[in-house]
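Minimal example, chain plus manganese (II) ion.
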Amino acid sequence: METKFYMKNRLRFFNHAEENSLLFLYSGTAPVKSNDQKMHPFAVNRNFYYLTGIETQSVWLVLAKTAGTMAEYLFIDQPDEEIIRWNGKMLTKENAAARSGISISDVHYKQEMDRIVARLLGDRRNLAAGAPAVCLSFDRLWMDSAPTQMEIYAKQLQEKYPFVQIKNIAPQLAALRSVKTAEEIQYIRKAGDVTIEGLRSMLRTAKPGELEYQWAADYEYYVARAGLRNAFTTIAAAGPNATMLHYSDNNCTANVGDLILFDLGAEYRNYSADVSRTFPVNGKFTTRQRELFSIVREAMDVAKDKMRPGVPLPESNQAVIDFYKKALRTAKLISDDSDVRKYYYHGVSHSLGLDTHDPCAKAVYEPGMVITCEPGLYIAEEGIGIRLENDILVTEGAPEDLVGNRLLDMDEIEALMERG
Ligand SMILES: [Mn+2]
């Protein structure tokens, strides 16, 4: 991604930011096991990354807006020879400036941060305009989990400067991130391409009687060789396991006669693909499996057709439910419309981007949104779970499917899985 992308994002954000405000974003820190160093995979805070392009842990971005001008600061750890000898190169002021487009004179070491923040707040203590607003991105997902570093920092600021007003800018960032640029769309498309190729590669090597994690490993081997990471834990669910939506134990045998459901996604430059496919373990669909697969496949088109500008978001899922009311009767699963939810118990779509479940601040579809389309059907009594998922770009006209029909055609799947 070019530096210009992050500069443009900061400018767009600045245009929405309130006058006389300071914004703080933090890149995050890698998790620690219990007695281990911070060496575990580090996932950068996506809002921070969106505005800086920097993927290093423990970096602060501070933006200050007054009288129509924006000042930008980065605070990084000071490179240390001892740490470099152990862990490799550290982010330098030069790299941070080059990556983000923030002037090198505004990139500082962290020990300077308190002094500079105090000065920025002092500069903005404009009596006419009132107290400065301090905006932070509060993006704690579960309210009963531990406070985030952002929340802890907000509390410290409030204690030290009781006159500031603390505000949450997560919604404004979500609004910006809801609509993708051409580069972002390219990255999601590329992630999807590698995901599909990984699945194709797996279908050539994985065998009936192997464990779910062995199938998953064949897929992940391809993704790793392509130089990509996985955006989330691979779901490989055979037979009845596929009726648990986020089953990821992946430790059961894939048996002849069962279907095996995969929900997975490679990540390219921090942009996620999210794809689901369902295959017959022994390479041949039964008549019943074909019947049910066709229903889910058709539901995908029904939902996708709603993903057009101006259509309220919930309508795509409602279209699937309405379609199932008829289709599941034909498949002899229901006799009452209200029973659809026994076999289909999730939503059909979510926003996709830097997060696999990207924040979305839109009520209707807009061109530039990238969303998933993932109808499913889960029949515990038959030991069958089917989910098919593609990534869709909303355009001015017809929705553009970034994954397309690859590995959705049952004849294509059977031909690929034919073992000589
Ligand atoms: Mn999904």
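The domain at 182-417 is CATH 3.90.230.10 (Creatine Amidinohydrolase). The chain has two domains: 3-177, 182-417.
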